[in-house]
Amino acid sequence: RKEVEQDPGPFNVPEGATVAFNCTYSNSASQSFFWYRQDCRKEPKLLMSVYSSGNEDGRFTAQLNRASQYISLLIRDSKLSDSATYLCVVRPNNAGNMLTFGGGTRLMVKP
Amino acid sequence: DTAVSQTPKYLVTQMGNDKSIKCEQNLGHDTMYWYKQDSKKFLKIMFSYNNKELIINETVPNRFSPKSPDKAHLNLHINSLELGDSAVYFCASSRFPEETQYFGPGTRLLVL
Lengths: 111, 112
Known about the structure:
The structure holds 2 protein chains of 2 kinds.
Chain A: E1 4-6, E2 11-14, E3 19-25, E4 30-38, E5 44-50, E6 55-57, E7 60-65, E8 70-75, E9 84-92, E10 100-101, E11 105-110
Parallel strand pairs in A: 2-11
Antiparallel strand pairs in A: 1-3, 3-8, 4-5, 4-9, 6-7, 7-8, 9-10, 9-11
Chain B: E1 4-7, E2 10-13, E3 19-25, E4 31-37, E5 43-50, E6 53-57, E7 64-70, E8 73-78, E9 87-94, E10 102-103, E11 107-111
Parallel strand pairs in B: 2-11
Antiparallel strand pairs in B: 1-3, 3-8, 4-5, 4-9, 5-6, 7-8, 9-10, 9-11
């Protein structure tokens, strides 16, 4: 089983749609969680951290379910510019700053 | 005003050659990293340096040797390149080991 698993997609949605991605992680001792965004042929960039209580940043909402070991990302009112690959990232508690990346979920927002 | 830069952007070379990729950050960060992203898009850490000292060394062939001449630079030297080394290599940096990592634009390596 991979340490961080994501549905690779692609998710094809129309502009204005709401779309949600899930990610599961295997290490129950994991401490920190993030969503990164990677555009085609570009570097990953931090989208948002994921806190235990859930957090929101504009149209983006991230949630953590420690009991089930999954993280979600909800995007409301999708824009064309949201088209990218979304990477779920986990930092295990005992791994210093070693980040473990999922394979990413590709989102394509169509006009 | 580039934060994390890498050179070269593209590298095409023959099997068996030795090559280096350079990374520089102007953010004043203490910690730098090298990642490999393979054809299936999985991003895996290779090395991490904090204040020029190695702190993470994942299972990477010893053909790969990082070198940090100072806090702002972390170069990656690869000996005897193999076909399987073809990938995108990303450098990253963070202020401290626990802080947000900022990635460079990547170096696309193709070994023929």
